[in-house]
Fold:
Amino acid sequence: QVQLVESGGGLVQPGGSLRLSCAVSGKMPYIDVMGWYRQAPGKQREMVATITRRGDTNYADSVKDRFAISGDGAEGPVYLQMYNLKPEDTAVYYCNARKWLGSLGDYDFWGQGTQVTVSS
Structure:
């Protein structure tokens, strides 16, 4: 059984940095992309950054030039380096592994999430 385990969250002041890690346990099936998503209170879960098995990356506009995703997009681990954090980055951050199934949709694995709080 595949498990994604996030770590590295915490409380940080505005302008600070954090590095999130996503470890994979179990036998990962063929995966097309891994990434980080976040969900703030009262808001929908949103994509933060993704990395494909080829190494192509994609970022939400709100984090471009501040966050950097790295690692192995095919089987993990993956990392999210966050710089110049802002209060609006406060959320639970989730690691995701996704298999694209075309017209059938996507098959997702999710971690339990790690809390990131940006506050003075």
